[in-house]
Known about the structure:
The chain contains no helices and 21 strands. It is mainly β. A hairpin with a 2-residue loop joins strand 16 (139-143) and strand 17 (146-147). The radius of gyration is 38 Å and the shape is rod-shaped. The protein starts with 19 loop residues before the first strand and ends with a strand. The model has no long low-confidence stretch (mean pLDDT 93).
Amino acid sequence: ESSASNVVVITTGNVPSSPSISSDRTILCTGETATLVSTGCSGNVKWSTGSTGSSLTISTSGSYTATCMNNCGESSASNVVVITTGNVPSSPSISSDRTILCTGETTTLIATGCSGNVKWSTGSTGSSLTISTSGSYTATCMNNCGESSASNVVVITTGNVPSSPSISSDRTILCTGETATLVSTGCSGNVKWSTGSTGSSLTI
């Protein structure tokens, strides 16, 4: 009887469990790539793109999964990672319900056309901004891909109730058929007469 042959070891195995995948980003801006990483695979990772390996670098949007393969077969699909694409947003447009603030008044600036988050030149955020001081105001729009250029400029000024005007007349006595012309001076706005007429002069 000869001595024993070489030994053949027989083991048992199972179809592997599904791996888990994750990504370092889920939104791709212009020129960016994302790296998908698979964990929990005791065999070889196969991606839904057909590529193999424990990681996958991608540059296009889509839904991605992976499976784990060994000698007993291929697992069911992993969780799904959805990658989308985006761009730096367009500039918003801003407007105000008034551009002159009198004593104690405020105005509200409104931003429209922003597909992300609005950031005001004051540092505040939000689609509207209430202000009580004069100045030049702009806004930008921010998203995961960056910040837009500045919006149009809204200039807010402050003012006060005007001082009383001074009026004079070319005559103070009217004879039959005569008229007098009253003239107002010192008014920085629009003159309103006690008769209800307006303008810098009044013929009576």
